[in-house]
Amino acid sequence: MAAPKRGRSASAQSKPGRSLAFILIAIVALTGGMFLAGSTTPRLGIDLAGGTSITLKAKADQGSAINKANMDTAVDIMNRRVNGLGVSEAEVQTQGNDHIIVNIPKGTNSKQAVQQVGTTAKLYFRPVLAQGPSGPASPSPSPSASSTGKTSPSPSSSASSKSGEKASSSSTASPSSSTGTQGRAVTDALKADAKKSPTPSGSASSTPKTSPSPSASGGTSADVAKLQAVYATLDCTKPDERAKVVQNTKPSDPIVACGENDKVWSKYILGPAAVDGTEVKKASAVFDTQGASGWQVQMTFTGTGSKKFADITGQLAQKQGVQTEFGIVLDGDVVSSPTVHESITGGQAEISGSFTQAEAQSLANVLSYGALPLSFQKETITTVTAALGGDQLHAGLLAGAIGLALVVIYLVAYYRGLSLVAMASLATSAALTYVLMSLLGPAIGFALNLPAVCGAIVAIGITADSFIVYFERIRDEIREGRTLRPAVERAWPRARRTILVSDFVSFLASAVLYIVTVGKVQGFAFTLGLTTVLDIVVVFLFTKPLMTLLARRKFFADGHKWSGLDPKSLGAKPPLRRTRRPAGPAAGPVDPKEA
Rounded CA gap, 572 and 557, in Å? Predict the structure, then answer.
């Protein structure tokens, strides 16, 4: 029989400190990263930290029916809206045939996500005909006001932008001022729009002078007069008035709309929709590293959208004042109104201004995910408290602590000194789990919910099982009559195979569960898979090297009765010794009878 190879085992046995140093450095580095990131605790899910639950009811639009396909499309778009904001563990799911439930956990972006999800109407690009401040007794604006004086939604609104925004295909100059009387400018613009897309009256003419509405001399159609009357009396600070002006509007009609910036409201008269939001192929927030524009939003249009956008920007570039702007309108609100200085062709455009990163990302989300196949109305918006989840978490942690205490008592009673190795390994695994969960919150949006806590508790048993497998292999070797140091090395290959197979099955089950499920069950599967991987890391880099070092200590090597490795208490057999047999018959006198 060939002698066993000893060089590799001896090398691994002589340098266990390297593995222990490696895992110690990893824990220190991850802990330092956790504090540098400012995330010293895991992010909590809606059932633990609270949050907001929104119930939306679908309304059939013209040409759009409430069916499973449209509802699933709406759920997908809402999911992308929320995920685009980095909100973790948001749940968007249908309920019944015409309701969608949106659960958003408490967080820095949850309020903004509520507003974007609730803003469920179609997205349109409309030319701005008039714009001015709105509030109690607010005066009518003059179109000769600088376009930098326009207002658009604040960062807390459904999308945000800054005054002085510009839409361009390249860098543009600063906005220019405009001239002319407001009533004539609005009326002329309405006439131009009526030639291309007639209003229900079919015509538009000069507007009689009124105050404070847009005015000009001459007659007008009833629709234009009504539009300017609504504009004159509109107070955008009142939610009921904002909701009223957007009811029963059509893309082909000019409308009155509102927009907010830094809690200051402005009102607009907007022409018929020139580009539909569905014709925006992609929008993203990027930082201008080549110039001084800072954060900006880049848009790419479809083939049809490119032509429409080139046409409308070419027309707006020839005008003056606020009428060089186009309003980006979502759910009747003007979320942005950038200025146009030239015809933008090629299907690509950018909106620049004094954006922050959050504001640029918010506007890009609206442009990317603004169009829905159905309209929705908010039925309920409920704040979910974490009281119930906190009670359940307390009960779960109490149960986990009791189970852990029972495991420790069993380990001490049965394994004695070896229980110290098991508890140190459990503590190492717990430290790695906590640090990684804290880092994964801001990194990938992982949030700890109740099922995830259950997964972590279940992992205690999986981790303890790996230690027990190894300990029992060592004790088996000692029962065979071997001393501790060779027993530790000989037991490792057999225990390693068992541990890897067991953990592979657990990881495979958690991976399948994560793929085929949604919502909170994924939290359980993710945590179970993460702790299973950490179990392998801890057993290979901590438990095995630590046992190698302890095997050199007299307390364990000599089999002290409290070490858990006492050969006598384990019923060890004496070492087997081979006896030599004679090659021929035994020598001695021969029985005469036998002879």
Answer: 14
